[in-house]
Amino acid sequence: MKAGFTPLTRALLCLSLSWSAFAEAPVVDDSENFALMENNQAAYARPLTAAADDDTADVTETPIARDTGADALTRDNAALINKIQGLQQELQELRGQLEVQAHDLKRLQEQQLSFYKDLDARLRMPSASTSPTDTSPKAAALPEADRAKIAALPAVAPTGVMTEQQSYLAAYELVKNRRFTEALNAMQAFTERYPSGEYTANAEYWLGELYLVKEAWPQAMQHFETVITRFPTSSKVSASMLKMGYALAASGDKAHARERLQQVVSQFPDTQAALLASERLETLKAG
User: Fold this and answer.
1) What is the mean pLDDT of the chain?
2) Domain, as residue range, for 256
3) Is CB count within 10 Å lower at the N or C end of the chain?
4) CA dihedral in degrees (149, 152, 153, 156; nearest 10)?
């Protein structure tokens, strides 16, 4: 008799089979899942690594960018230094030019002072062409007819300005060559021909100087006074005042001489004329 299975037995049998199936199944899905996770991690790791690479690139590029900025700053600093050095060189050149000009100016002032002192020394030297009693301006002057001939000489240049200039320079050349009598006549003729010319004040001044050489004090003072009163803007005014003081002192009028010399110091400070006036004032005080 074939044994039959009761409903309870069949249920227990199915349950037992079910448990044995679960117990014998391999863990393949879990392994594959781990592998898949590893692949996924690798897949995610690549972008992260690329991003990390990018970050690393950024990190490595940042110093490069900073280096470029530093190079630009270095170039700017170098350009600024070159510009400063160029300005310093220009300043040095300008200082050199100023020193040269100052030297030239000092040399001219020394020449002018030497010239004044030379003329002053002539006043104290006895003149070979005149005697102490030869103080009359007529003794050194040409006759009126001769002076008229000189004044009537035709002009060499086509313009009056050049004629005046040439005439004055010719007369002044006689002064420089110490041909005092001829120079006096030439300067006198010049002032008669050009009473209000461009060089008339200079000619009047040299007439005063020439009469000082001849110790003709009144005539010298007359010409110096002409420069002071008629040509107040002339460059010869300070020298005329100075020599007026010399003439007054030489003539014995020391009080008025001191007044004139002090006037030079007051009106023309820091000039060669003021320096000479101060020296003569000291001499007058000592005397």
Assistant:
1) 72
2) 123-286
3) N
4) 170
Helix H or strand E encompassing 229: helix 217-230
239 near 233, Cβ under 8 Å?
no
The predicted-structure confidence for 94-123, as pLDDT tens digits, reads as follows 777 776 777 677 677 677 667 766 766 665
Quick check: 188 and 215 in contact, CB under 8 A? no
| In a domain? residue 173 | yes
Please answer whether residues 206 and 175 qualify as being in contact, where contact means their C-beta atoms are separated by less than 8 angstroms. Answer: yes
- Total domain count, the chain: 1
* Residue 260 covered by a domain: yes
Of the listed ranges 6-20, 108-122, 234-248, the least confidently predicted one is 6-20
Is position 210 within any domain? Answer: yes
Q: Are 187 and 207 in contact (CB under 8 A)?
A: yes
Which residue in 61, 81, 83 sits closest to 73, CA to CA? 81
Q: Are 214 and 194 in contact (CB under 8 A)?
A: no
Q: What is the pTM of this model?
A: 0.49
* Crossing angle (nearest 10°) for helices 180-193 and 144-151: 60
What CA–CA distance (Å, rounded) separates 144 from 286? Answer: 45
